[in-house]
Design brief:
The structure holds 2 protein chains of 2 kinds. Chain A is of the alpha+beta class. In chain A, 41% of the residues lie in helices and 17% in strands. Classes of the chains: A alpha+beta, B mainly alpha.
Chain lengths: 583, 143
């Protein structure tokens, strides 16, 4: 306000020319002094801001320089993508990363291509000279020459001092156990990305995204612990390899499943491959038959048929079904392998493995109920586990009474063997269907996941029947003393060119141990076993899959911590009696 | 006059502060490089540990152990009858009671001692008790 008041008095002292300039420059009636002071103030503020920014940036650079140092150190091996270690349930290593040098070239910096080619092929004899020259002649900035070389080769090449040739350390996935754990683990490609098995599942769990962002370069990722037990896996594989050779079968496969948690403790499908050598996996005979193959499981399916009848209350252990003569259905005729030519009770149908009896049981329950029961047991839908490989069961499109008749004894419905194992485990463990897993799981978690499919009493009766079948049925050779095994055999004719073959069979054996307090379920499956002198010309399950199963149980049970009990009474006196007591 | 003194004092303080900051900065650079070196050493060690663990996994592989056991040991798979529970174990006798006071028990013990050989010691060990370790390796190829 004072600035406006003063000019009136001082104005006359000013010469007119200066006043004109002032008026032109600043306008009328404005005090230059006040204005200049404000401007100086503004300039001070502006400079202060600029210097403040410079100071702040200096502080930021000073703080950030640490990360620069680290980056410089890592750049020698930045390409490598790390994967977490995979451990078995006892923390034995199944898969781990090892750093290996890889050789690369920078063609633009290369001076003498022919000389370099000559020297490199001398050190790496398995490198193709023409291909190498072609790669080095390209105009690209970076080419891989050879992945995964040995430290000695690295030293040799380093000493030649070739310009434009360098090494990068890469993570290489190694599987110390080789083929022991193959299908289950899967394998990785040259860039350490999972392409099969648990390795692929790992990538699906966000690891792939980490790789993409370039963050998964360190070894600090938490290891993954699987449910598999390396010792059990080895014992199972060892016995299966022996059995496959002995019966000259195309393939042999086996699973050990914890019936209370659904954990897969061992899974072998022979022939298998060495994950360190992934191209072996391309061979179609080496597929994982347990999850990617579907098979008609044969008489083991009678366990479902009998359980269904017992659970629905349509039959009891005392019910008898006519098995006098082969069952005629349309133009089909169903025979028994060991015809008894009389009416058989339910336990007899189970232990003689009577096709006619099983068919009649299923017919007594009805087509719809049969289908609904198998659906409830998870036998009609694709089973999904952590493994990316899975197969859809082959279910008849129109499910007529004939289908029910044949499916009752395990023909006409093809399921993945792992699926059948899951179903039978539910029959054994008190009636709870638990989806199988390859990861560790506690019993409480399994109970939360599982759903009740049959009554606990039915499960108890089924275990009685399984034990009875070992005591005096088709699985008599499985009676390893001390482990109280219960089991059901299965022999299915294989389908060749759309017809059931008379000569080619698939045999399988499901064993529960111990039958009175079920802990583990074992499946043994042999594809096209042949008769030997030792089996007296037979090739049914009882002569090949069952003895194999017994050998496996004898080796595996101590590893699984099952205590041998040598003085147990028979199934009639132990399981059946305890059931009666509870009622 | 006072103002000028103050100015000099401020300039002196500035120089001192700059020197001090430089020292801290220099120290921190040294520390950072030390840290980077240690980090890379840790990384290297971790890589070697992983390589050694992989190698151990290979050597400890059950198939390999089984092959070695079949070649060099005379052990057989455990039968179910060979298991027993701890509560079936007889009580430990009082110290020195059986050996010194009961002569017959002492004789029986002496008799039984050589028979207690486990399956891992081949028969050759009985004839040459002074070289207990050697027969395990030497005895195997002859059988």
């Amino acid at each position: 306000m004072t600035a406006n008041a003063n000019p009136a008095s001082s104005e006359p002292a000013e010469p007119w020319r200066r006043r004109l300039i002032r008026t032109l420059l600043y306008g009328r009636n404005i005090d230059r002094l006040a204005k200049a002071r404000a401007r100086v103030g503004l300039a001070i503020v502006a400079f202060a801001v600029v210097y403040g920014v410079i100071a702040a940036r200096l502080v930021m650079f000073a703080l950030a320089s640490n990360s620069h140092v680290n980056h410089r150190v890592v750049s020698g091996d930045a390409v490598a993508t790390a994967r977490p270690d995979i451990l078995d349930r006892n923390s034995e290593i199944l898969a781990t990363d090892v750093r290996v040098p890889s050789l690369y070239g920078e063609p633009r910096r290369l001076i003498d291509i022919d000389g370099a080619t000559e020297l490199l092929t001398a050190d790496l004899p398995d490198l193709d000279a023409t291909e190498l020259r072609e790669r080095l002649s390209s105009r690209r900035g970076f080419v891989w020459l050879k992945r995964d070389i040995t430290p000695e080769q690295q030293r040799e090449i380093y000493r030649q001092g070739l310009p434009g040739i360098g090494f990068l350390n890469e993570n290489k996935r190694t599987y110390p156990n080789g083929a022991e754990v193959s299908h289950l683990l899967g394998h990785v490609n040259i860039d350490n990305q999972g392409i099969a098995g648990i390795e692929k599942w790992l990538d699906g769990q966000g690891l792939a995204a980490l790789h993409m962002a370039g963050l998964a370069t360190d070894r600090l990722q938490a290891p993954i612990q699987l449910a598999v037990d390396l010792r059990v896996q080895h014992a199972l594989r060892d016995e299966l390899v022996a059995a496959r050779a002995k019966f000259s079968a195309i393939a042999a496969a086996g699973i050990v499943l914890d019936v209370r948690t659904g954990e897969i403790v061992a899974m072998v499908s022979e022939p298998d491959y060495d994950p360190n050598n992934p191209h072996e996996a391309l061979d179609p005979t080496r597929i994982n038959r347990l999850t990617t193959g579907v098979y008609e499981m044969g008489s083991t399916f009678k366990a479902f048929t009998v359980a269904m009848a017992l659970d629905s209350g349509k039959a009891t252990l005392k019910s008898a079904f006519d098995a006098h003569s082969p069952l005629h259905y349309g133009k089909f005729e169903i025979h028994d392998f060991e015809p008894q030519q009389r009416a058989l009770t339910v336990p007899e149908i189970f232990t003689y493995s009577s096709n006619i009896g099983a068919a009649r049981i299923a017919m007594s329950v009805g087509v719809d109920a049969h289908k609904a029961f198998l659906k409830k047991m998870g036998q009609l839908d694709r089973l999904r586990t952590e493994l990316p490989e899975s197969a859809e069961p082959i279910v008849p499109k129109r499910w007529s009474e004939l289908n029910t008749v044949t499916i009752a004894f395990g023909h006409g419905l093809s399921v993945a063997p792992l699926q059948a194992v899951m179903g039978v485990a539910a029959l054994m463990n008190g009636g709870i269907l638990i989806p199988p897993t390859f990861l560790k799981r506690t019993e409480a978690e399994a109970q939360a996941l599982g759903k009740r499919v049959i009554k606990p009493e039915t499960s108890e009766l089924m275990r009685y029947l399984m034990r009875l079948n070992v005591e005096k049925g088709t699985a008599a050779k499985a009676d390893v003393p001390g482990y109280y095994i219960g089991g059901k055999t299965g022999t299915a004719d294989k389908v060749v060119f759309g017809r059931y073959s008379k000569t080619k069979v698939l045999t399988d054996f499901m064993a529960v141990m111990p039958a009175d307090q079920p802990r583990y379920l074992l499946l043994i499956m042999l594809d096209e076993p042949h008769a030997t002198a030792e089996t007296h010309g037979f090739k049914t399950s009882g002569w090949n899959a069952v003895p194999t199963g017994a050998a496996v149980v004898g080796r595996v049970a101590p590893l699984l911590g099952i205590e041998p009990r040598l003085d147990l009474p028979t199934a009639d006196n132990l399981i059946l009696a305890s059931l009666k007591e509870n009622r | 006059m006072i103002l000028r003194l103050l100015n000099f004092a401020v300039i002196g303080a500035l120089v001192l502060a700059a020197a001090y900051v430089y020292r801290i900065k220099f120290n921190s650079t040294v520390q950072a490089e030390h840290l980077a070196k240690l980090t890379s050493e840790v990384r290297h060690e971790r890589d070697s540990i992983a390589a050694l663990r992989a190698e151990w996994g290979e050597l400890d592989n059950p198939a390999r152990i089984q092959g070695l056991a079949n070649r060099f040991l005379h052990l057989k798979p455990i039968a179910p009858t060979q298991f027993d529970t701890l509560d079936h174990l007889p009580d430990r006798p009082a110290d020195g009671a059986s050996a010194s006071t009961d002569p017959i028990a002492g004789i029986i013990e002496n008799l039984e001692e050589p028979e207690m050989a486990t399956g891992s010691i081949p028969a050759a060990a009985d004839t040459a008790p002074d070289s207990a370790a050697a027969p395990a390796a030497a005895g195997a190829p002859s059988q």
